[in-house]
Amino acid sequence: MPATSQQQVGSRGRCAALLLPLLLLSVAPRPGNATINIPSKYKIRDLKSPPVITAQPESVTTFSADDITLTCEATGNPPPTFRWVKDGVEFDPSKDPELSVSRDSGTFSLTAKDGPIHQYQGRYNCYASNVLGTAVSNEARIVTENTPTLQKEKKVSKKVEEGESVVLPCNPPNSTVAPVIHWMDKKLRHIQQNERVIQGRDGNLYFSHVTEADSRDDYTCNTQFPSARIIVLKEPIKLTVVPSNSVVRNRRPQMMRPTGPSSSYLVLSGQNLDLECIAQGLPSPKIQWIRKDGVLSESRTSKDSYDRVLRFKNISVSDSGEYQCTATNLQGIITHTYSVTVEGTVYGVMYSVAEGQMIELACETFGSPRPNDCSSQLQHIYIYIYIGVLEILHPFKKAKMNILCVNREGETWGALVANPRMSQLLDGSLQISNASLNDSGQYTCTVSNSRITITAELDVLNKTVIVKPPLALRIQRGKPATLTCEYQVDSRQDAPQVQWRKNLQKLTESSDSDKYMIDESTLIIPDVKEEDEGTYTCEVITTLDIAEASGSITVVDRPDPPTQIQMTEPKDRSVTLSWTPGDDHNSPVLEYLIEFEETEYERKEWEELSRVSGNSQRTTLSLKPFLSYRFRVIAINDIGKSDPSMYTDVISTPAAPPDSNPEGVRSDSIDPGTLLITWKEMDRRSFNGPGFEYKVMWRKVLGSGPSWHIKSIKSPPLIITDVGNFSAFEIKVQAVNEMGEGPEPKSTIGYSGEDYPLEAPLNVGVDLISSTAIKVVWAPIKRETVRGRLQGYKISLMYYGPESRREHVREGKPSNISFVMTDSNEEMKVLGDLLPYSHYALSVSVINNKGEGPQSDPLTFHTPEGVPGPPSSLLLDSPSETEMILHWTPPSQPNGILKGYILRYQQDNPMQVEKNIDHGVSHVSLKLDPHSRYRFYLRGYTSLGEGLPIIREGATTLDGVPPSNISLSTGETSVNLTWVSKERQRNVGFFIHYLKKDGTCTWKHSERVNSSQSFYTLRGLQSGSEYRLKIDFKNKTLWEDEIQTAGAKFMEVRKGFVTESWFIGLISALVLLLLVLLILCFIKRSKGGKYSVKEKEEGQIDSEARPMNNEGFGEYSDNEEKRTASQPSLCEDSKLCNDDALDDYANSNSVQTEVIMDESLASQSSGVRDVPDPGTQESSPLNPATAISHHGLPNSAALLD
């Protein structure tokens, strides 16, 4: 008998009934390819072999105009037969006339046609079978979709301020096939993308910040579906960029896509993966990618979209890790971390064995995490187990095999087969119905008369459950609706597909992006219409099962207005109103509002009259006399009010006497001797008839008898004169019209107007309580002199100053006046807070509602002497370390005759010293300990005692010294010196000495600096130079430091003779001389004469010049004298006097001039001249060798008349 054994490996949910035959299929939905290895030594003809799938069907998404082909090919001996299962149900493609089936395989195809192809959508498995078993293909899916079409869209217009970020949505049509998206303008030119403007993987166009140049009205998202061979053009988007009113400020980066600090991806090895980072900011952020747990491989990754996308192609397990993108600009950074988990696949190697053959089974595994053995289970990894025992035909004899199945480990065979959910089939297969978590484990089947054992592993996964199904929503038309579908899926399965249906119809088949927004498990309808009502089903589809849940959308709205408004049963003061309800639009009517309008009133407006419950269709309305009504009805539900119904005909009620009298009857009399009666006017709807007026009645409470005075008026108030001051009256007002009077009114008491009091209180007196308080008393006032309602008394207190200033009392000019009010029943008042030793006066007057009466005669008094206030000021001055001088000013409030001062002071310990000081003294000098702090108490005193003290704390100041704890901060041409002034030290002046270290300068010093400044800037330094700084005090150096200023080193340029003052003066004189010569030449030419000099004059000049040679001013040869004597006049044969010479002079660099002077000129030039030796003189354009005259004078010294 066959037997089966099982080893527990875990439990994870339940699945459908499972069949575990000898050729065992796992419960995994996507089996991998399996092969049977035939040993090469077997060369038997017609060797039988089980089927092996050689060409797998592939999933396809197709549109109505596409061909469909599902391939299924297999090998085996005998040749296998093929069958298909669609969505768990047998499917025979040969019976469908639209499908063509291949003869030698299970492949079938559908040729493109115009008819619907939605019936072919589903999940397909191909089964290849022969006598040795069955092979099952991978699951392939056919997803059919309608050809995407352009749906009606609302035009999108965005208006943003310059510098802001913006996203232009694309919203391509929903499809399982991802479209290719292009952003273009109306001329089909691509929108230029860069680091600032980029297209996201979701198709939207992202602007990190906008500029005015981005304004345009033709941003168009073109969605291309290559498989459908169509391009859908979306509605153009208008973007308006408004210039900023202020300077556009930079902004730090913020993530636009994705949001949040982190996200994660779980992928299988071999797939492609794109990680995306799009950030906003100004300026546009730069994107950088790093791998946080390792080095980012440049060979396995690539970057796209201006580094916004990190792309993995054919991802592997080694790529698992954390990847971080960083967006950076001048304002800051922001990061986003992706956690990527890559899981591999476990592959099993399948063998074919013969009876009695020894075989070694090798199990090679890899994955993430790497399995420890062949039975390890990985999330998202599926195993296809295909173990076959070959029946080998021997040339002489056929081996007979008996299959023996043993029980699972730890459990007897009887207990196993006793389970009603488990049964063994005739071929040895074990069938388990309604699998549970406890059924997970390993099952072993052995073959009798052989050593062959087959082990299969059953893994039961958790059932997919929808934990938060869609709700039954009641949504107002035009509002958005959101349906959610939260689910739980076993962690070992792939992410499920969520499919939404409306009334069993897939939403993606006939929906556009504006109508439905599907985000994973959330369905959003932005603008609900009546046609959106229905049942919405959420399907969570995994490879093992499907979970579904349904919700609904009910479109509600304001109710329609009631119709058929009718009035019945009219009476003098009532009428019955009935109506027919309108459509409540799926929201029951809560109440009805009845409104009325007066047709004969000038200002016509609708007012609320009554409310009735929503289940009522009629009501009786109360009416008022002498009015004309018409009515309308409004229905109200949870959504709001309906439009008003049509109004009724006009109904008028007859007149009647008033039903009530006015309220608020009172006397508001103000003027003396008058009675003013007023009341609150009645609403005109309470007049009840024509000729409405008020009947006013009044009489005195005392002395006027029972008769009433009566007067009728149209409106309040009524003023009655000559009725006396503050007299009590009984008053009442009654409503009257032509139909009669209203009910009898109630009377009330009112008073006529008040007048000012006639007299002041008598017997006013003052009792002194203390130096700061008095008691004021007076006699009661006669009530008849009050002439109104007594409100109290007013005490006027006048302050004239201290006792020493009696002239204020004589002059009658108080320096301050204050007032104190009392109650009407008070005849005594205590006044406090007076100033001692001061002159006062007071008077008392009577107060009523009208005002203040006359004041009593002023009563003068003075307060006795008191203790003084504190001295006005106290200043501490320390001229030395052991001396403290206290300066003070007298108290501002002596409160008497000041006798003197008492000074008390104490050190840090409780010891106290007291000194008595004469009142005329304003300062005192104390000898104190320089190491202690003191507290000083100074107070004045009078004959009544000591006053309050003024308190100061302090200590003597120590001799000051310049600072030594100096901090330095250098610049290019200055250095900042800062220090902290020591406490208790007197200010002292000092200088900061500085010396440049290159040795070319001497010590310099700053201006005078005070030690209390705490800061000083030393300026005038040279950049890039080293300096020594020091502070000297009392012939000692207290502080010294070295600094180097910032910047390039200053290169000192040595001055040449060109910049010397004597050279500048020489050149200036030469220029002046040449100018004078030119002027003389022009004068000479204009006169036509010559300038000649006699020989005698020359000799005289020589004789005067020769003594100068003896003094070392120069020696001259005879040749030079002869040449000088034979010189012509200034203009004779001279080039300076012709026009060409003048032109040459203007263009020449230097001019040689010889001047012949007469005796008068020579006599003027007999002074000592400093002339260089001609033999050593350098010849140059500025200093020519021939520029010295024969008379020992340089050219610049020539003198002319």
From TrEMBL:
<dbReference type="InterPro" id="IPR003961">
    <property type="entry name" value="FN3_dom"/>
</dbReference>
<keyword id="KW-0812">Transmembrane</keyword>
<dbReference type="InterPro" id="IPR013783">
    <property type="entry name" value="Ig-like_fold"/>
</dbReference>
<keyword id="KW-0732">Signal</keyword>
<dbReference type="InterPro" id="IPR003598">
    <property type="entry name" value="Ig_sub2"/>
</dbReference>
<dbReference type="Pfam" id="PF13882">
    <property type="entry name" value="Bravo_FIGEY"/>
</dbReference>
<dbReference type="InterPro" id="IPR013151">
    <property type="entry name" value="Immunoglobulin_dom"/>
</dbReference>
<keyword id="KW-0393">Immunoglobulin domain</keyword>
<feature type="domain" description="Ig-like">
    <location>
        <begin position="148"/>
        <end position="231"/>
    </location>
</feature>
<feature type="domain" description="Fibronectin type-III">
    <location>
        <begin position="870"/>
        <end position="960"/>
    </location>
</feature>
<dbReference type="InterPro" id="IPR036116">
    <property type="entry name" value="FN3_sf"/>
</dbReference>
<feature type="compositionally biased region" description="Basic and acidic residues">
    <location>
        <begin position="1093"/>
        <end position="1105"/>
    </location>
</feature>
<keyword id="KW-0325">Glycoprotein</keyword>
<protein>
    <recommendedName>
        <fullName>Neural cell adhesion molecule L1</fullName>
    </recommendedName>
</protein>
<dbReference type="GO" id="GO:0005886">
    <property type="term" value="C:plasma membrane"/>
</dbReference>
<comment type="similarity">
    <text>Belongs to the immunoglobulin superfamily. L1/neurofascin/NgCAM family.</text>
</comment>
<keyword id="KW-1003">Cell membrane</keyword>
<dbReference type="InterPro" id="IPR036179">
    <property type="entry name" value="Ig-like_dom_sf"/>
</dbReference>
<feature type="domain" description="Fibronectin type-III">
    <location>
        <begin position="561"/>
        <end position="656"/>
    </location>
</feature>
<feature type="transmembrane region" description="Helical">
    <location>
        <begin position="1062"/>
        <end position="1083"/>
    </location>
</feature>
<feature type="domain" description="Ig-like">
    <location>
        <begin position="253"/>
        <end position="341"/>
    </location>
</feature>
<dbReference type="InterPro" id="IPR026966">
    <property type="entry name" value="Neurofascin/L1/NrCAM_C"/>
</dbReference>
<dbReference type="InterPro" id="IPR007110">
    <property type="entry name" value="Ig-like_dom"/>
</dbReference>
<keyword id="KW-0677">Repeat</keyword>
<feature type="domain" description="Ig-like">
    <location>
        <begin position="463"/>
        <end position="554"/>
    </location>
</feature>
<feature type="region of interest" description="Disordered">
    <location>
        <begin position="1156"/>
        <end position="1201"/>
    </location>
</feature>
<feature type="domain" description="Fibronectin type-III">
    <location>
        <begin position="760"/>
        <end position="866"/>
    </location>
</feature>
<feature type="domain" description="Fibronectin type-III">
    <location>
        <begin position="962"/>
        <end position="1048"/>
    </location>
</feature>
<dbReference type="GO" id="GO:0098609">
    <property type="term" value="P:cell-cell adhesion"/>
</dbReference>
<dbReference type="Pfam" id="PF00047">
    <property type="entry name" value="ig"/>
</dbReference>
<feature type="signal peptide">
    <location>
        <begin position="1"/>
        <end position="34"/>
    </location>
</feature>
<keyword id="KW-1015">Disulfide bond</keyword>
<dbReference type="Pfam" id="PF13927">
    <property type="entry name" value="Ig_3"/>
</dbReference>
<keyword id="KW-1133">Transmembrane helix</keyword>
<feature type="domain" description="Ig-like">
    <location>
        <begin position="353"/>
        <end position="455"/>
    </location>
</feature>
<dbReference type="GO" id="GO:0030426">
    <property type="term" value="C:growth cone"/>
</dbReference>
<comment type="function">
    <text>Neural cell adhesion molecule involved in the dynamics of cell adhesion and in the generation of transmembrane signals at tyrosine kinase receptors. During brain development, critical in multiple processes, including neuronal migration, axonal growth and fasciculation, and synaptogenesis. In the mature brain, plays a role in the dynamics of neuronal structure and function, including synaptic plasticity.</text>
</comment>
<keyword id="KW-0966">Cell projection</keyword>
<dbReference type="InterPro" id="IPR003599">
    <property type="entry name" value="Ig_sub"/>
</dbReference>
<dbReference type="Pfam" id="PF00041">
    <property type="entry name" value="fn3"/>
</dbReference>
<keyword id="KW-0130">Cell adhesion</keyword>
<feature type="domain" description="Fibronectin type-III">
    <location>
        <begin position="658"/>
        <end position="755"/>
    </location>
</feature>
